[in-house]
Amino acid sequence: MGYKAKFRVWRGEGGEGRLEDFTVEVNEGEVVLDVIHRLQATQAPDLAVRWNCKAGKCGSCSMEINGRPRLGCMTRMSTFEESETITVTPMRTFPVIKDLVTDVSFNYKKAREIPSFTPPSDVKPGEYRMQQIDVERSQEFRKCIECFMCQNVCHVIRDHEENKQSFAGPRFLMRIAELDMHPYDVADRKESAQEEHGLGYCNITKCCTEVCPEHIKITDNALIPMKERVVDRKYDPLVWLGSKIFKRSS
Amino acid sequence: MERHEYDVVVIGAGGAGLRAAIEARQQGKRTAIVCKSLFGKAHTVMAEGGAAAAMGNVNPDDNWMVHFRDTMRGGKFLNNWRMAELHAKEAPDRVWELEAWGALFDRTKDGKISQRNFGGHEYPRLAHVGDRTGLELIRTLQQRVVALQQEDEKLHGDPEAYIKVFAECTVTRLLKDGDAISGAFAYWRETGEFIVFDAPAVVLATGGIGKSFVVTSNSWEYTGDGHALALLAGAKLINMEFIQFHPTGMVWPPSVRGILVTESVRGDGGVLRNSEGRRFMFDYIPDVFKDKYATTEEEGDRWYNDQANNRRPPELLPRDEVARAINAEVKAGRGSPQGGVFLDVSSRLPAAEIIRRLPSMHHQFKELADVDITKEPMQVGPTCHYIMGGVEVDADTGSSSVPGLFAAGEVSGGMHGSNRLGGNSLSDLLVFGRRAGAGAAAYVDGLAKRPAVTGLEEARAEALAPLERTGGENPYEVHHELQRTMNDLVGIIRKAEEVSEALQVIEKLKERAKNTASAGSRIYNPGWHLAIDLRNMLLVSECVARAALLREESRGGHTRDDHPGMSPEWRRRLLVCAAQADGSAVTVEEQVQPGMRADLISLFERSELEKYLTEDELADYDAAVKES
């Protein structure tokens, strides 16, 4: 059942590195991360890779497999031909620390730039009343496991380092949409989405949606509706105010 | 060496750690969160079912007393009853608080937080978000930390003035000044450089120990760090023999063996069958639960829609009972092709409903096992999931016996007795995370002067040793052998001679671990990190095995093939582990568990207590009832 697979893994630290070739055993039912772990245990004990749950729930083992951003734990070896050479490289948009581990601090910095959930001051814990249908839109976005693959693949920053300053990236633009659609959030997020977090840079190529391991429709359900809200707001702030009040009272 | 001064250092950034840190910061303490992974990746994200809190949103008859009773029953009355009381009383407030911080739980028709059924809980009690409740909890707490940092930025111009996350940073030693805690010694995973925290209070929130077993639902981080750090610092561990094997882990394919299949599958109608198609759980209802569970499939099935007039199906017995039953079926040759049993929801609910209620499970089986759970049954079997044992703490403050050392969540012991109910973990994190954070803050307020750190050189030398040796043992091999040993010899069913054999193997592995060599540099070197973690895993495994050998009865997460009965005499005895600062001379001593307060014990019927208590204790109970 097992076979020997050919792997090319990016190895290196301190800004330098190269692809290294390995021949490694693969058994039935394994995923790419299993094979990386076997390399650690048998051939390359200091091979660096992030991982935690190995069940697609924590979003730690993001890497590029044959050039496509994937979770190592959710990429089954059976999706490749046995004769195929599998190339594993770190996420390209973030600086490499070592081997497959990248410096993702950009994302934590951006997270801190988004104003937090802002409930009305007169609602106490335990008094929140919301209908399932009203929370479902934001719930979809809260499925995000922060693997940062959407950030990695978004061409606004993947090929343009200079945009990192003024662009929050799909993950955090979606966070703004999540809060804007929260039935109890009272902050005005439309103008800042456009002016401060770079919503306008997004030209809806849907690369983020395609790589999302949680199958969140980032572009269709978060970014495009957010863009529409920004436009509505620009034409008619009263419509925005009215809709906010209406939502609160329902 | 890099040095930082804090009031409170929280080790671990799962639910308990984050809730403790939030509390310490809210009480004005300069707080550090030190965690092995990235911020937001903790094992808490794996929790699926929900957080148990008697809010009474679905069934108004629910209240803290019912929850308290369920928790004590689940733990077979070995629980620290004060913890179980605080937990049951405070869980609703902790859940509601999350909502005010932005959490979006699933809703009832009248707009309240929805609550689902779970094993051992009398009423629908688990606040949930589909089957990804743990992720919601972590994200909400993570975002609460960020909100506090935004506040601090406005007030002090620095978001990290009062609460800072040190991610991918591993603590290897707690530092002391005399008897009291004075800080922690750690290394950055990214660079291998060392970092010292000067702090009078440390909160351990490091989770569990599952990585000492081969088949486990736990992630790599679960190497028993907090358990070991506490022991080495002079604190005591209790109940280490009690390990919960979750009844339903995936069994196929081999690479995902052990990954959790949420209990919600059963709570929402899924049934367990053997290879003969029989719903075998009806054959395994123990006497203590006889009057609480359905005896026919018809009654069990009616319960899902009419809980007032029917008893619950036995698939929802506490986890230890279900795990043992599955084990017995497989042993009797009635297992599934890949060595588990069948868990079927496909014939019980419409496909769309399964996908709505159990989205993660649907996704997980499709992606990892190529199984569509809306069309065919899953194969499942027991997996090492949770340790009930941990640091012995004061219920109200989370304080250990070492001044300045606190613990909360899975790393602490007592709350769950001999077996934890599903859903009681997330609520435990919130209730006791908050209490430990408050306890640490109050402790710091009461200090006359800050303690001084000592022992830096020793800590440094210990951490560097694997890198400085050449030609030693491969740490991956030592780890693998420990996992096999614990799985095979101190697993779900235990025997004296097997546990003794495990202790001999552990002794040898300890020697081998002292001789591990890690090739490569200090930069993000997993071989080196594992060599350091081995010390903790071996120490904790030794505690588990020693306690398991001593306890000559079967109760909850401790089943002795050679002592199958539950003994009222043993119920009052807790096994307490201690060790020397170098990890040698692990001792286990018996300690008497204090009797339950009169108003709490009066919540139970005498007929139920007779199954658990000694004659003397029953006499005390009679007196308590008479008085009230």
TrEMBL record, chain A:
GO MF term list: 2 iron, 2 sulfur cluster binding; 4 iron, 4 sulfur cluster binding; electron transfer activity; metal ion binding; oxidoreductase activity
GO cellular component: plasma membrane
Matching PROSITE patterns: 2FE2S_FER_1 (PS00197), 2FE2S_FER_2 (PS51085)
Keywords, sorted A to Z: 2Fe-2S, 4Fe-4S, Iron, Iron-sulfur, Metal-binding, Oxidoreductase
SUPFAM superfamilies linked to this entry: 2Fe-2S ferredoxin-like (SSF54292), alpha-helical ferredoxin (SSF46548)
Entry cofactors: [3Fe-4S] cluster; [2Fe-2S] cluster; [4Fe-4S] cluster
Domain 2Fe-2S ferredoxin-type: 5-92
Alphabetical list of InterPro entries matching this protein: 2Fe-2S_ferredoxin-like_sf, 2Fe-2S_ferredoxin-type, 2Fe2S_fd_BS, 4Fe4S_Fe-S-bd, Beta-grasp_dom_sf, Helical_ferredxn, SDH/FRD_Iron-Sulfur, Succ_DH/fum_Rdtase_Fe-S
Signal peptide as annotated in the record: none
The protein's annotated pathway: Carbohydrate metabolism; tricarboxylic acid cycle
Protein known as: Succinate dehydrogenase/fumarate reductase iron-sulfur subunit
Automatic annotation (TrEMBL), chain B:
One Pfam family it belongs to: Succ_DH_flav_C
Keyword Oxidoreductase found: yes
Cofactor(s) annotated in UniProt: FAD
Keyword Oxidoreductase among UniProt keywords: yes
Record keywords, A-Z: FAD, Flavoprotein, Oxidoreductase
Domain FAD-dependent oxidoreductase 2 FAD-binding: start-end pairs: 7-426
Catalytic site: 319 (proton acceptor)
Domain Fumarate reductase/succinate dehydrogenase flavoprotein-like C-terminal, residue spans: 479-584
GO MF term list: steroid dehydrogenase activity, acting on the CH-CH group of donors
PANTHER family xref list: SUCCINATE DEHYDROGENASE 2 FLAVOPROTEIN SUBUNIT, SUCCINATE DEHYDROGENASE [UBIQUINONE] FLAVOPROTEIN SUBUNIT, MITOCHONDRIAL
Protein name: Fumarate reductase/succinate dehydrogenase flavoprotein subunit
Organism (species): Microbispora oryzae
